[in-house]
Design goal:
The complex is a heterodimer of chains A (140) and B (159).
Chain A: H1 15-48, H2 60-104
Chain B: H1 10-38, H2 42-73, H3 76-85, H4 96-109, H5 115-143, H6 152-158
Helix pairs in contact in B: 1-2, 1-4, 2-4, 2-5, 4-5
The chains are: A mainly alpha (140), B mainly alpha (159).
Chain lengths: 140, 159
């Protein structure tokens, strides 16, 4: 199996845009879950009836079956929420990883970050061979 | 703390919406449980109440963890701004949540179910109320910064 290829695109989002997109995706998924939960509560309300008298006159077996379905849905929502929480944690950690760049770049040298230690190449102390050739590498 | 991009707080706002819907869901489930009790489905009421409370607690733990994640990463003023922009979140404190949970617990004690099952339900109900109050307490803490110069304009804008 070959490696996946990224199709060419005129605009590639930068790191910050990617983080915002990911956070927005989490928010949208959560709003979708809210809509599902809202629909489920309306479904229960319709089944029970406004006067709490089961307007469709279901049998005990039907009530238990309906109850099971409702419980299963909440379980799925909880599971999905766990996944979203992990995703949020990862995205926020990823966002934190960006921080040292800005802090270290106070000298405004416009150096690109090192691929191995992620610090601007002028501050980079790692043994990445190609960075040693950089103009503002401190050892030069 | 750093300058915050408002979009970074979107998942927190979505969490408020989920909590609002969760309260509505609990009200519906509460009514359903009453109807089941009226239909003499005691065993089903006991089983459902326990499962429901356990799942609500799981969901509450997730909501609390999310607030904690933001609390650690963003300033109090930023999180307070989110609360200010969503006054509907304030409406969740009308007691519906805790009242319904306590009612569900009360209902289960009237059902013909085993004693250990009732005890499990009581424990889950206690935890549900504790987790909810914990979240409200955090909101109160944010409110204490209401009169600080850097946040007072937010309150004036939204109230």
């Amino acid at each position: 199996m070959s490696m996946p290829t990224i199709p060419p695109e005129p605009h590639r989002p930068n790191r910050k845009e990617v983080i915002i997109d990911l956070l927005e995706s989490i928010a949208l998924e959560e709003i979708a879950l809210s809509h599902i939960l809202n629909a489920e509560s309306e479904k229960i309300q319709a089944f029970v009836g406004e006067c709490l008298n089961f307007p469709t006159k279901p049998s005990s077996k039907e009530i238990i079956k309906f109850n099971k379905g409702v419980t299963q849905l909440l379980e799925s929502v909880v599971m999905k929420e766990w996944i979203l929480l992990r995703k949020l944690e990862n995205v926020l950690d990823f966002e934190d990883d960006c921080e040292p760049h800005h802090k270290k770049c106070e000298s405004r040298c416009h150096c690109s970050p090192c691929h191995s230690c992620h610090f601007p190449v002028c501050k980079c102390r790692c043994s990445h061979k190609k960075h040693k050739d950089h103009d503002c590498y401190p050892g030069k | 703390m750093r300058e915050v991009e408002p979009k970074l707080l979107k998942p927190l706002v979505a969490g408020f919406q989920l909590e609002k819907t969760l309260t509505k869901y609990i009200v519906s489930q509460h009514n359903f449980l009453y109807c089941q009790k009226a239909a003499d489905l005691d065993a089903s009421v006991g089983k459902t109440t326990f499962t429901l409370l356990r799942q609500i607690n799981e969901l509450q733990k997730i909501l609390n963890q999310k607030i904690m994640l933001y609390r650690d990463r963003f300033s109090e003023a930023d999180v307070y701004a989110v609360y200010c922009e969503h006054p509907d979140y304030e409406g969740l404190n009308d007691g519906t949540f805790v009242d319904r949970i306590e009612d569900m617990c009360e209902l289960s004690t009237k059902c013909a179910i085993k004693e250990w099952n009732k005890s499990q339900i009581r424990n889950e109900a206690k935890q549900a109320c504790f987790l909810f109050r914990e979240r409200r307490k955090w909101l109160e803490i944010y409110k204490t910064i209401h009169n600080e110069t850097k946040t007072v304009w937010l309150a004036q804008r939204h109230h």
